[in-house]
Amino acid sequence: MNESQTENVIVTEDVKKTYEDNGVAVEAVRGIDLTIQQGEFTAIVGPSGSGKTTFLNVISGLDVATSGKIWLDGNLISEMSGTELSDFRRDHIGFIFQAYNLIPVLSVEENIEYIMLLQGVPKEERHERVVEILDDVGLSGFADRLPTKLSGGQQQRVAVARAMISQPSMILADEPTANLDSKTGSALLDMMRDLNEKTGMTFIFSTHDEMIMERARRLVHLRDGQIDYEENRE
Amino acid sequence: MFKIAFRNIFRQKRRTILTMLTMFGGFVLSAISIGYADGSYSYIIDLFTHNRLGQVQVHKGNYLDRPSLYKTIENYQAVGDTISGVDRVESWAPRLFSAGLASLGDQTVGVRVIGIDPDQEDAATNFSKKVIKGRYLSSQPRREVMLGKGLAKLLHADIGDSTIILSQAADGSMANDFYTVVGITDRGDKMENRTAYYLNLQDAQELFVLPGQVHEIIVLADNIQHLDRLANTIAGTLQNNSLQVKPWMEFAKTFYQAMQADLQGMWIMLFVIILIVAIGVLNTVLMSILERTREYGVLRAMGTRPFEIFRMVIYEVTIMAVMSIVVGTLISVGVNYYFSLSGIALSSPFDWGGMQVSHLYTAVSPRSIYLPAITVFITSLIVSAFPALKAARIAPAQAMRIH
Fold this sequence. Notes:
The complex is a heterodimer. By secondary structure, chain A is an alpha/beta fold. Chain A has a single domain, classed as Rossmann fold (3-Layer(aba) Sandwich), CATH 3.40.50. Chain A is 37% helix and 29% strand. Chain A has eight helices and ten strands. In chain A, the strands form two sheets. Chain A has a six-stranded mixed beta sheet, sandwiched between helices. In chain A, strands 2-1-4-5 form a four-stranded antiparallel beta sheet. In chain B, a hairpin with a 5-residue loop joins strand 7 and strand 8. Chain B folds into two domains: 193 residues, no CATH class; 168 residues, no CATH class. Chain B starts with a helix and ends with a helix. Chain B is elongated and about 105 Å long. The chains are: A alpha/beta, B alpha+beta. Chains A and B meet through helix 3 and helix 4 of A and helix 1, helix 11 and helix 14 of B.
């Protein structure tokens, strides 16, 4: 690993992912070299089947690459064991999913503090940080509510808070606005952009939503599992 | 993890209730079955041993295998006194046996003469309560006889009749005498009722010329547990190699084996109950794992280690098992306690080892609770380990694709 790799948040080198679908080998990712730096607000875009979600899963360690190398925060995750990957995700990556995926039996506060619990953060500190981040995402006063008592937009804000609470170096968001109406989606994206500027946390989206593309500073276009072209908006 | 597990069990209330009912049902059925077996067997054993045989018997040499008029326990009073000093011994009673011919009028019947100490026999076996006509034998020897009800019928005997007994005494002389019928007894055993000719022990000793001697000493303990140990203690205390001390399981081997065979049946039934619990728990836990695959995927994505997921599933099952066992314990103890007092009346009484049994009782025994508790708990954990492992091994990316 060279010097530049340690300064970057994500570095991939000829990453490939092939999986079997009903006995047929599908090459979802066909050798992607990508570098993402600290503080970027980047969207990986492309049509359905272009491999963007698969690529996001592979670079986050949710899925295993068939070949190639992946460095996150300077750590070669493509050679980590399952437990090492769990610990790495816990400490370095925040996830935002299309379907919010909050734990339905836990309150807003408990959902947000879950990762801190895994990290062994003391109770008082957990509570202070939850209060602070709920304020940041505009959900003060919602701490004791269950996810089912929130609107879709509110649930996704909780998901953003949950992803950011442990101050990971990157937030990976897979189609975060897909289940929201345009007004709620737009507000959520503005909030995420503000948080990105305020905290310097790296945001990487997988999407084909125009609203996200408009706000992203960098667009990585995928087609047939490969980078088609890139756009830098800065 | 515990918090999530605890709250998870209230998510699908119907399924949780079903799972807990399976565990609860299995527990209660097992607890009541064991309580019923313990209670009824204790009752039957107590009836069987308290009524006639005693729980431990002392004989001279191999009297039990090859009875003989001459195999007697000498100075039985001293032997009995030593036995009564042993811990757990509640009472003892001496008996003398011989065969003879009893006559009344033109009826003559082969009988088993049984010499008893009326007071000691009554203290040990409540024999006076088995007199169905007339009265119990006098404490002092007065040439009185009690007849089993079958024998009384064969002899056409009634209270006040004078019977003649004819036999052989230990000194080789002819043993014969008159005895007046004072009572007719029913001890529950058909054979004994048809042959028993009860005399005062002193009368019998005089008749058979066996002064101070008996053939058998029965011993009653404070309870029926660990009688083999009690028999060993008595044997050790007596320090007399010519005497054999045996618990009822040995001298009533057929009866004991029949009971053991019956107990095996109970264990088979318990195995079936536990199998049903296992299948029920496995089914519902697997269903819940399948339903929450996506959720486990999210937890894994956020950095939850596989073992934590495994632990969460096990916690859920543990909570349900503990709650089922606690409620089950309260219900089972209540049911077993109630039927230990009131008994269960049998629609048709049955004979067991010569005893007629019309009621059976349950028992609130510790094992009727801890055996089902351990079994249900461990079975639930074992069968949920597989789904828990399945949940722990979920691949996050794959799991989150499931809707």
